[in-house]
Amino acid sequence: MSKKKKITMQDIANKLNISKNAVSLALMNKKGVSNATRELVLQCAKELGYSNTNLTELNNNIMVLIPERVMSYEDQDHFQFFHDMLWGLEQKIREEGMNAVVVRIDKETERTLKLPRLLDDIAYRGIIMFGIIDYAYAKFIYELDVPVVMLDSYYRDLPCPVVTSSNIEGACEAVNYLIGKGHKEIAFIGPVNLTTSHEERWFGYLTALEKHQLTIQPHLQLTQSESFSKTKAEIELFIAKLFKLNQLPTAFFCGNDRTAYILQDVLLEMGVPQQTWPSIIGFDNITPPDSRHLPITTMSVQKEKMCEAAAKLLITSSSSTFINYRAALRYSIPPVLVERQSVKRI
């Protein structure tokens, strides 16, 4: 006697000519499908002999949305950082007995606010938005009314669980470190207007200066950027202006290591001898691009702990009422100071 074929959600989806995810939403009695569709799915499931025990398959997939631009080899600095984070995130999700389904979001998908096909084709437990996704698209995904966790970057008016590095505290520690080395003229470089992480690190910079009663000097702060692709040109103008005014500070705190190494590039191209460079400290702990660069003293982001927290928050918020997946929960992981050659004592 042949074994009876197990009926799956895909069988129901094929029968009704709808997406598998629509079937999962209907079976789980969640928002996202009409009452008419829900009734059709339930009736079809009953006719085909779909068992409620099959609902466990709905709980295995976690969608990880990441902008394609940060995973491109055209941006080696971002690629290294985000690749490490993505690998760690996949590992932590597997340790929780789930599957990480990575979905790359290209510029056209963001611009047109299209739902990735994978989100229609397979059932999933929730979504982790990873990296700097355009606001309009992040809002579009947020409004799907499924559990969402934002990792590394977030938007304050989209309340949901968020995992970041402790940016304010880490920046404050970095600037305190420079002050402890005798520096009083400390500049800041970071696109505050583009990401919450740089905004928070700028706030930590200001907090440290105020704590030590040092004068906050606006001309030593480059906080606005047209885009990440303009970073080098903007730093060139900033440094040229400081040289022209003869006001080059003794130290720079950069919003991330990518910015710090671009600052080194600018100093190299301007012909400034390395032994006369100002002290530089960054954030993220990225490997130097090549041997021309001086290894940066940095605040090392604890990637593994951030990934573990994101996986646990998503799974918890999607499986119980303990965490409201529309609550502005912030989970911050303290970074660790790594001392290298780029900071000198005055």
Structure overview:
The chain has twelve helices and twelve strands. By secondary structure, the protein is an alpha/beta fold. α1 packs across α2. The longest helix is centred in the first third of the chain and has 20 residues. The radius of gyration is 24 Å and the shape is elongated.
Overall pLDDT metric: 88
Run of helices and strands:
HHHEHEHHEHEEHEHEHEHEEHEE
Q: Which range does the strand content fall in?
A: 15-25%
Strand order of the largest sheet: 2-1-3-4-5-11
Structural class: alpha/beta
Q: Which consecutive residue ranges, at least 5 long each, have pLDDT under 50?
A: none
Distance between the termini: 85 Å
Keywords: DNA-binding, Repressor, Transcription, Transcription regulation
Pfam family, one: Peripla_BP_3
InterPro entries: HTH_LacI, LacI/GalR-like_sensor, Lambda_DNA-bd_dom_sf, Peripla_BP_I
Organism: Paenibacillus turicensis
